[in-house]
Amino acid sequence: MNSFDRRPQVWMYSGQGSQYFAMGIELYEHEPVFRETFDEVSRYAQRWTGESISEVVYRHAGSRFDPFSETRLTHPALFAMQFAMDRLLRHRGFRPDFLLGYSLGEFVALTTTGVLDWRDTIAALMHHAKCLDSIAASGSMMAVLDSSALFPELEARFSGVELAAVNAPRHFVVTGPAGPVHRAQDWLARRNVDTVMLPVSHAFHSVAVDATDDSLHQLMSGFRLGRIGTAVVSCAAGCIVHDLPNGLPKRITRRSIQFQQALAALEASGPKLYMDLGPSGTLASFVRQNLGPNPASEALMIVTPFAQDRKNLEALEARRRPLSTAFVPEREYGS
After folding, report:
1. Which domains occur in the chain, in start order?
2. Structural contact between residues 196 and 143, judged by C-beta atoms closer than 8 angstroms
3. CA distance 130 to 187
């Protein structure tokens, strides 16, 4: 391809289940903008967490593959990591044309587009985590590597199982109480359907979180909201949104995620360069599964669990498009 890629850029932010200890550690150790942003969010969140998210994520004594599912820690950690990625890319001169948010990632997208002040976002996420821990029952989520056409049979056989997300032609997610979800996993295994349990402590996007919605909506109703700057692609709505919808928190936390539909809306206007700012490359993988062979669009990941973050970032730098004007740093979010 050409040295400079001129396809519109779609920056993607992922949600619960994509986190792990030491995510983005190469960038944290070697990229000052990333580290300073992550630490700034960590300091602000500590009033709710009681401990440093930076310490939790980057100085964990065990393996990066140890369970990391405590919502009061994973909520701010996922926000901090992706917010830091966003600032790092902007610092290097990149600019997105679209922002795609997936579940918790929608809060990141609404922050980076200027609708939410990042401090308000942290307050909302920490309030949500507290409500989940005090009100919502624990639960499970499971990725199913098959067509979502299989879901109605799961729903009929296992009471309480709900559809959380449709990500690709052969990838959907179910959510619900741990018992029914695990029984569904056993049933699928006997039919040679591959599944993956997600590292979460609650059944997000299920009836179990309904009790938290009113409280979160009440809190966010007091926030001062800005206008959408860069276009936002909502996986809750499955389309590009130009105005803030009513009942925004409930749409994000409760509705099933329509990633496949949101991607189709983007592809309708031509080829894109999709850049995954999440920690696992999950959304880039979903994009590739949807695009099929020989696509005009492309999906890139930067941070992965395989310690190639700096290498991936430099490869991206080598192909970035030139700015139309001299680069002037944007104002700080929320300043």
Report:
1. 9-136+205-318 (3.40.366.10), 140-197 (3.30.70.250)
2. yes
3. 34
Give me the average pLDDT of each 10-residue run along the chain (335 residues).
Answer: 71 91 95 98 96 93 76 94 97 95 93 94 91 77 95 95 94 94 96 93 82 78 86 88 70 83 94 96 95 90 90 86 41 43
**Exposure of 32 by Cβ count < 10 A (0-12 exposed, 13-18 middle, 19+ buried)?**
exposed
DSSP-assigned letter for residue 232:
E
Instruction: Fill in the DSSP letter of residue 174.
Output: E
What are all long-range contacts of 60-69, with beta carbons under 8 Å and residues at least 24 apart? 60/21, 60/22, 62/21, 63/21, 64/20, 64/21, 64/22, 64/23, 64/305, 65/20, 65/21, 65/305, 66/21, 67/199, 68/19, 68/20, 68/21, 68/199, 69/199, 69/200, 69/201
| Tens of pLDDT, residues 14-27 | 988 889 999 999 99
Question: 58-89: b or e for each residue (b if 16 or more CB lie within 10 Å)?
Answer: beeeeeeeeebeebbbbbbbbbbbbbbbbbbb
CA distance linking residue 298 with residue 283, whole number of Å:
12
The rounded distance, in Å, linking the Cα atoms of 324 and 320 is 12
Within 10 A of 152 (CB to CB), how many other CB atoms are there?
A: 10
